[in-house]
Structures are given as structure tokens and as C-alpha cells.
């Protein structure tokens, strides 16, 4: 392989890395209601009581308190930022980028009343490719554990 071929391959890799990090993000495309969205399949993870990959327990707090705690957990994740929504709106969408390439994953969360407390519906999905190799599931499960440490669970009856 000649030096020109190596240089072209290197430039292509650098160009792809730059494109993945710099391609514009349309918050409107990603800020969707997790209760209405289709399950992302191998490209993500959906947490909700019906039609999701799993359901979370109810927390013995208000929806606003729960979403505030979730927001703190999400924002503590490296390379994560809010791109749409707020606690006041009742729904927030985050982008988290992978460390090496900067591939974007999106997570949208909303509160759902549950008995005397509330639970969350979370839709986490990738932007590029067809499979995330479990990255979104692992992140969302890690966030649940952090929430459990912050808040008391409502025990099932």
C-alpha cells in the first residue's frame, strides 16, 4: 500500500470523526414522548410499563422531585448535556457522546404518576448505526441505580 493510500485512509477516518462530532442535532427530532414512541430495538432501550424493554419501580416522591433527581444523575454522566425540555416542562432530552469517537446517543425522560408517587418513562437510542451493543441499556440502568441511592422506593404491595 502506497503512502498516498495511507494518507487517504487517514484523512477519511479523520473526516468521519469530525462529521460525527459536528453534524447538527435537531432537538425536535429527538425530544419525543417516551410513552408514545416506538421501541428502538437493538438501537436503544425503552423503559415504560407497557410496550417497553423493562419498567421501573415507583418512587415515593412527586413527579417533579423525581425528574429533578433524574436530571442531576444524567448531568453527572460524562459528555452529557440537555438539548431540549426542562423539569418544568415534565420532559427532558439529553445527548451523551461516546468517549473516543463522539457518537451521539439520545435519552428522553418523562414522569408518569404511579400510585402515591411517580415513575419514569425513558427512551434511549442511538443516532448512527443499527445496534448500540447494549450501551444505552447499561447507561440507563446505571442512572436507575443512582436514582435508587437518592430516593426511597415505593415497595410493591
Q: Can you characterise this structure?
A:
With 157 residues, this protein is α+β, with helices and mostly antiparallel strands. It has a single domain, classed as Alpha-D-Glucose-1,6-Bisphosphate, Chain A, domain 4. It is built from four helices and five strands. It has a five-stranded antiparallel beta sheet. Helix 3 crosses helix 4 (135-150). The longest helix is centred in the N-terminal third of the chain and has 20 residues, at 3-22. It is elongated. The mean pLDDT is 90.
Fill in the keyword field for this structure.
single chain; 157 residues; alpha+beta; Alpha-D-Glucose-1,6-Bisphosphate, Chain A, domain 4; five-stranded antiparallel sheet; 4 helices; 34% helix; 25% strand; elongated
**Number of E-type strands:** 5
Side by side, the strands of the main sheet go 1-5-4-3-2
Question: How many structural domains does the protein architecture include?
Answer: 1
Q: Specify the CATH class.
A: Alpha Beta
Class by alpha and beta content: alpha+beta
The CATH topology name reads Alpha-D-Glucose-1,6-Bisphosphate, Chain A, domain 4
* Shape estimate: elongated
CATH architecture: 2-Layer Sandwich
Report the span from N to C terminus: 68 Å
CATH homology-level superfamily: START domain
Q: What fraction of residues sit in β-strands?
A: 15-25%
Question: Largest sheet at a glance?
Answer: 5 strands, antiparallel
Number of helices: 4
Output the radius of gyration.
18 Å
Mean pLDDT comes to 90
Regions with little confidence, pLDDT below 50 for 5+ residues: none
SSE sequence, one letter per element: HHEHEEEEH
Helix content: 25-40%
